[in-house]
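Local shape tokens

___
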Amino acid sequence: MSQGATIAETAAPEPLASDDEVLLSVENLSMHFPVYKGVIRRQVGVIKAVDGISFDIRRGETLGLVGESGCGKSTVGRCILRLYNATGGRILFGGQDITALSGETLRRIRPRMQMVFQDPQACLNPRMTVSSIISEPLDEHRAASGAAKQERVRELLDAVGMNPRFANRYPHEFSGGQRQRIGIARALALNPEFIVCDEPIAALDVSIQAQVVNLLEDLQAKLGLTYLFISHDLSMVRHIADRVVVMYLGKAVELAPRDELYSDPKHPYTRALLSAVPIPNPQVEAHRSRIILTGDVPNPANPPSGCRFCTRCPVAEEKCHSVEPEWRELEGGRQVACHLAE
């Protein structure tokens, strides 16, 4: 295959053994950040940003990861891509344990996993042209050069809905939505199998958000991509995700197929989150009840004993304050960490 082959040709995935084949498996993943204090920088504790989370992502699937700001969503994505070295647990990608890979072995894995960042302005170098930004991964991994590299840049710009003639412009000349498309094109440069979308629409106008999400869906259908879609926008997650993981204070509290989660949430925190999502029907919206959580999110450096959510849960019992709930499976492949879920 020539280096100048089209995006459709180079990105076509190999035939899958099964629609349910697992591409990524996260097992009891933890990421603790040390807390230092004083002149001599003595460690006085740890922030448990991620504390024992497990899930699988199947090939071609979009797994949504939702929760409040600061719950550890982005940290999970960065651990999976090995931007952070996890404190504990395992990360299996394509059946290979990549948790402790380093050096050239890790470098060979990286083209298969890419990331679309939250802020399209901050993640693009203002001193580089669009062509240089998109071709940087090609240079780093020596995947193309010369005319083949420039042709690849034009193909990628066309694939994300931008005019290839924009290749010599700079990021400040584009809108937020266009900059995010450039970021997506850069993520696609090495034909990845798996992309972490870290709140890719959070910094965009509402009118542009749907365009970017539709682009991600079109690219997934065309190229056979697998997504971890991190967001706090539950309405958008409902549109794009196949299954959804709900996080609270570093823990996964519920995992379920999208439709089941939104129609019948099992965990009290999931119910509270969904009750805050506006319904586009004034009559229904005016009369529906909301679950108002009291208190603040606990300090991740000193989480409560028992269930992490017990200090704010409207239905918590005495057991919830002393015994940590197990991550268990319910009917229909649903998983939940709650003593009271049935």
In short: Residues 37 and 43 are 6 Å apart (CA to CA). The first strand starts at residue 22 and ends at 37.
